[in-house]
Design brief:
The chain is α/β, with parallel strands linked by helices and 274 residues long. Helix content is 50%, strand content 9%. It has a 5-stranded parallel sheet, with helices on both faces.
Length: 274
């Protein structure tokens, strides 16, 4: 068990389990690099270790009868079009409800893991709310998301959120370093300079997303340094301010990626906040 990098979170959950105080639903929120899926599976092995010597193989292969894993690649829209529509649809949520309505196979917990929970479409999220409102017996539902703030607030508030950070600083590629060196000096300039930068920088062909990604990783590193998870030079920002900046970048990245929001405007809004 000790190869795990998120020991603090694991210990917290283990204590809850032992005290019989597990919540029915958890939201594991953290960046892609935090590897939350394998953490969730480790936790489910622990939850069910009393009722069965859970073979790692069963859970890894997802043929363990008391675990259902939901992912967008299995949605009807994805399969129909033979491409990942990045969507979790209402049919999958119905599957969850159906799964939870049966007794546990081994007499332990019924467990559900939903990867990229933010990919639930509106219909799916509304249906999922009902699942969360009336949890049945020994049930643990784990939502995993790197964009948790894009979930409906009603879902967010019904899950206990556990935050994860990558345990090391994010290393930038050559190209990303270039982007960062371009943009960092602008952060301390006046408004006119910031608008000028947003106007002149190339935001075509996915560059906007790349810039937002680099900013997000840069500020995540600053936050990790600030809370003492990793070593590095402290920035002028408070923890609150860094969290606020990260939330803003997250929300705006989501809008740029999923709607035809203006990338220039998106960048201006973020630069004004820095």
């Amino acid at each position: 068990m000790h190869h795990m990098e998120h020991e603090k979170q694991f210990k917290f959950l283990k204590n809850k389990l032992e005290a019989n105080q597990l919540a029915h639903s958890y939201l594991f929120s953290g960046p892609q690099e935090a590897n939350l899926l394998s953490f969730a599976k480790e936790f489910i092995k622990l939850v069910n270790s009393k009722t069965i010597a859970t073979s790692d193989v069963a859970i890894e292969k997802e043929n363990y009868p008391d675990l259902l894993t939901v992912k967008s690649a299995n949605s009807e829209s994805s399969i129909k079009n033979e491409k990942d529509m990045m969507e979790i649809d209402v049919g999958q949520v119905r599957q969850v409800n159906n799964f939870l309505s049966y007794k546990s196979y081994y007499g332990g917990y019924k467990t559900v893991i939903m990867e990229n929970a933010e990919r639930m479409n509106t219909q799916a999220q509304n249906s999922f709310l009902k699942t969360l409102e009336e949890p049945k017996g020994n049930t643990v539902i784990i939502l995993i998301s790197s964009k948790a703030e894009t979930l409906l607030p009603t879902i967010f508030s019904r899950c206990q959120t556990i935050k994860f950070y990558p345990s090391q600083k994010y290393a930038f590629s050559k190209q990303q370093q270039g982007i960062l060196q371009n943009i960092l000096p602008v952060i301390n300039q006046d408004l006119a300079e910031k608008f000028l930068f947003a106007k002149n920088v190339n935001l075509e062909n996915g560059n906007a997303i790349e810039i937002l990604e680099v900013l997000q990783r840069h500020f995540r590193n600053l936050l990790l340094i600030k809370i003492g998870v990793v070593k590095g030079e402290e920035s002028k920002y408070s923890i609150e301010k860094l969290k606020k900046i990260l939330r803003l970048i997250e929300t705006i990245s989501h809008q740029v990626a999923t709607t035809n929001a203006s990338s220039k405007l998106a960048l201006e809004i973020i630069l004004l906040e820095l």
